[in-house]
Write a structure and sequence with these properties.
It is a single chain. The chain is built from 22 helices and 10 strands. By secondary structure, it is of the alpha+beta class. It has 3 domains: about 170 residues, BirA Bifunctional Protein, domain 2; about 90 residues, no CATH class; about 270 residues, no CATH class. Strands 1-3-5-4-2 form a 5-stranded antiparallel beta sheet, with helices on both faces. Helix 19 runs parallel beside helix 21. The longest helix is centred in the C-terminal third of the chain and has 34 residues. The protein starts with a strand and ends in a 20-residue tail after the last helix.
C-alpha cells in the first residue's frame, strides 16, 4: 500500500478532477467512501437534494472550505492536503467500508483528524478505481488553528505498513528517505504517449550514473555526459565557479518547445554536484593509483581488467562481511555500484540486459543513512575506470571467461551487501541487493556456459588415476561441504580439470585449494564448485577460457595429458571460423 502526498490551494479544482472522467477516461464510478462526519454530500451518487452533480460538487467544496474562509489570513496558502493511497496489483480488491477504515486511520495518523477530536480538520475520501482512493482534507481545524503536520509522509508510510499487516495485504519495505525521486504521473503519461519505455527522469538517472562510473575528474564526468548524447547545462556563481548542473534528453520538450531540464539532485540524492565532487575528491590519487589489471600480457585489455576487478571485488566483500567501520563499508557499496555500471556498459550483448538490470537494482543499495565519509574507494574506482577504458569485451575466448569470473564474485558481493543492510534494518536496500544478485546469477549462467562446458569435458577426459588423486585432495580439504557423493562434491569435473592444470603450471593443488577456500565464505554460493574454479584459475593465472575440450583417447592408447598452461587462443581449433568483427578496443565504451 503506497501513499503519495501533495499539497495545493484549489479544493474545488481537485474535486472536479476526482469526480471527472480522468485524463484518459480511467475514472469509473467516482463516489465517496468516507468523510469527516459521515454526512458529506456525494456528487457521484447523492441526487436526493440536488439532481445536478455540479451543484452537489460545489456544495461539497464549500463545506470543506468553510473553516478556511473563517480563518481568513490565518489559513495556510496551500490549505489542501491530498493523499492518494494505492494497493499493490497483486492485492485483493478492498470494499468501500475497508477503504473508509484506511482513510480514517491515515487522517488520524498524520494528525489531521484524530479519533474523538470534534475540532479535527474536514476531509473526504473519493474512490474512482478498484485499487486506490484519494483523501482530500483542508488544513484548518474547528478552532481555526492549523494542524501540526510534521513528518506527515513518514507517519502515513508507517500507518500503511500496519494496515497491510492487519488486512492481509502485501507488506512493502519501509522507506528511509534515501531513495531516488520517482517519476510523477505526468512524466509517466508523457512517456506512454511518446512511446518511451520509461520516464525521462529514469533514463537520465541511469545515464548520469554510468557517466560517473570510474570518472577521474569533474571535466571527464561532464565530457562523458555529452558523449552519451545528453544536453548539459551548468549553473555558475558570479565568480564563475560551477554550482550545479542540469541535464535533459534530446527530444524531451515542454509545451513551449523548451528542453525539460532535471537538476542532478532531483535524479538521485547522491547525483548532486557537491556529492559528485565529494566522490571525486581523491581524483588525483586515483589517477596515480596503479592499475588493478592482472594476467598475461598477451591477454586482451578487457580480460586483464576483469581479472583485476575480481580481486578488488573479493576484498570489498571481505570488508562487508567484517565488523569494521560502517562508513568504510558504505563506501565500498558505492564503489561496487560503480563497478557494476562499468561492467554493464562494456559487457557482451548476451549479458548486457541482465547486467544493466543488476546495476539499476543495486543503485538503491548504495544509499542509506550510513554516510560513506572519509573512506578509501580508490581500488574499486580504479577497477571501474580500467574496465571502461579497456572497452567492450567479447562474449567468447578469454574476454568471455573473465566476464564469468568477475560475475561469479559479484554475486557473492551483492549477497554480502544484502546481509550488511539487513543487519542494520535497511529493508529496501537489502531487497535491492538480493534483486541485483538474481540478475547477476542469470548473467553469470549465460557467460559461464561455454567455458564451463569445456572444463567439464576436460575433467571427464582426465585419466582415472589422476581423477582419484584430485578427489582425495577434495575430500581432505572440503570435509564439511554439502551436496557430496561419497565425500566428494557433486559435479566436480571442472574443478578436477582446474586442479590438474594448476599442478601442471607448478602449483601445489592442495595448498592452492585451501587458499581459494580461505579467501571468504562459500555458504551463499549457489554452486561451490563454480566459485572455486574461478578462484583457482585467477590465483594460478590460468586462462579463464580453457579452449577446446580434451578428447578421450581411444581404448588401448595412452591418454593425452592436458596441455600445459596455454592461452585460449592456442587451444582454439584452427578450423573454427571467427566472425569478422571490428576490434572492440578501438570503439568507445558503450554508455
Amino acid at each position: 500500500m503506497v501513499p503519495k502526498i501533495r499539497r495545493g490551494s484549489r479544493t474545488h479544482g481537485l474535486l472536479v478532477y476526482l469526480y471527472g472522467p480522468g485524463k484518459r477516461d480511467e475514472h469509473v464510478d467516482p463516489h465517496l467512501v468516507g468523510s469527516w462526519d459521515g454526512f458529506a454530500p456525494d456528487p457521484g451518487r447523492d441526487t436526493s437534494l440536488d439532481p445536478d452533480p455540479k451543484a452537489t460538487l460545489a456544495r461539497l467544496a464549500a463545506a470543506l472550505d468553510l473553516r478556511v474562509k473563517q480563518a481568513g489570513a490565518n489559513a495556510p496558502a496551500e490549505h489542501v492536503w491530498h493523499c492518494s493511497v494505492r494497493t499493490d496489483p497483486g492485492d485483493r480488491t478492498l470494499t468501500d467500508e475497508e477503504w473508509n477504515t484506511v482513510a480514517r486511520r491515515l487522517v488520524h495518523a498524520v494528525n489531521l483528524a484524530s479519533e474523538g477530536d470534534p475540532d479535527g480538520c474536514r476531509w473526504v475520501a473519493v474512490r474512482h478505481a478498484d485499487d486506490h482512493i484519494h483523501i482530500l482534507a483542508t488544513m484548518v481545524r474547528g478552532d481555526l488553528r492549523r494542524p501540526r503536520m510534521n513528518y506527515d509522509f513518514k507517519k502515513a508510510q508507517a500507518e500503511c505498513r500496519r494496515i497491510e499487516k492487519e488486512m492481509g495485504l502485501r507488506r512493502l519495505k519501509p522507506g528511509d528517505g534515501t531513495g531516488a525521486k520517482t517519476p510523477t504521473s505526468a512524466e509517466r503519461f508523457k512517456a506512454e504517449r511518446t512511446g518511451w519505455t520509461e520516464a525521462p527522469r529514469e533514463t537520465l538517472r541511469e545515464a548520469v550514473r554510468q557517466a560517473l562510473a570510474g570518472a577521474a575528474t569533474e571535466e571527464e564526468f561532464f565530457t562523458r555526459l555529452r558523449e552519451a548524447g545528453l544536453r548539459v547545462k551548468l549553473r555558475h556563481a558570479p565568480s564563475g565557479d560551477a554550482l550545479g548542473y542540469n541535464v535533459a534528453l534530446p527530444g524531451d520538450r515542454n509545451r513551449h518547445g523548451e528542453p525539460v531540464w532535471y537538476p542532478g539532485s532531483k535524479l538521485a540524492p547522491d547525483l548532486s554536484l557537491p556529492k559528485i565532487r565529494h566522490r571525486l575528491a581523491d581524483s588525483t590519487a586515483d589517477q596515480a593509483a596503479p592499475s588493478t589489471a592482472e594476467g598475461r600480457p598477451q591477454w586482451s585489455a578487457p580480460a586483464r581488467e576483469r581479472r583485476g576487478a575480481t580481486g578488488t571485488a573479493e576484498r570489498a566483500a571481505v570488508l562487508l562481511d567484517g565488523e569494521g567501520d560502517e562508513e568504510e563499508a558504505a563506501a565500498q557499496l558505492v564503489g561496487v555500484g560503480e563497478l557494476l555500471d562499468a561492467v554493464a556498459q562494456t559487457s557482451p550483448a548476451a549479458t548486457r540486459a541482465e547486467l544493466a538490470a543488476a546495476a539499476r537494482a543495486f543503485e538503491r543499495a548504495t544509499r542509506s543513512h550510513v554516510r560513506a565519509e572519509r573512506a578509501d574507494t580508490r581500488a574499486l574506482r580504479s577497477a571501474a575506470r580500467g574496465i571502461i577504458r579497456a572497452g567492450g569485451a567479447l562474449g567468447r575466448g578469454e574476454d568471455g571467461g573473465t566476464t564469468a569470473m568477475l560475475l561469479s564474485t559479484l554475486v557473492l558481493v551483492t549477497l554480502a551487501a544484502a546481509r550488511w543492510h539487513s543487519a542494520r534494518g535497511h529493508a529496501q536496500q537489502a531487497h535491492a541487493s538480493r534483486q541485483a544478485a538474481e540478475h547477476l546469477r542469470i548473467a553469470y549462467r549465460q557467460a559461464a556456459a561455454t567455458p564451463m562446458r569445456a572444463l567439464h569435458d576436460q575433467g571427464r577426459a582426465l585419466p582415472e588415476a589422476q581423477r582419484r588423486t584430485y578427489e582425495t585432495t577434495l575430500r581432505a580439504v572440503l570435509p564439511e561441504q554439502d551436496g557430496r557423493a561419497d565425500g566428494v562434491p557433486a559435479r566436480t569435473d571442472a574443478l578436477l580439470a582446474t586442479l590438474a592444470q594448476a599442478e601442471q603450471a607448478g602449483h601445489d593443488p592442495e595448498t592452492l585449494l585451501r587458499q581459494a577456500i580461505d579467501m571468504r565464505e562459500l555458504d551463499t554460493a549457489a554452486d561451490v564448485n563454480d566459485v572455486l574454479v574461478w578462484r583457482l584459475r585467477r590465483l594460478a593465472q590460468l586462462p579463464a577460457h580453457p579452449g577446446e575440450a580434451l578428447r578421450r583417447p581411444p581404448v588401448g592408447t595412452r591418454p593425452t595429458k592436458p596441455s600445459a598452461n596455454r592461452t585460449s587462443e592456442r587451444n582454439t581449433p584452427a578450423a573454427t571460423p571467427r566472425p569478422a568483427v571490428p576490434d572492440p578496443r578501438s570503439r568507445p565504451p558503450r554508455r
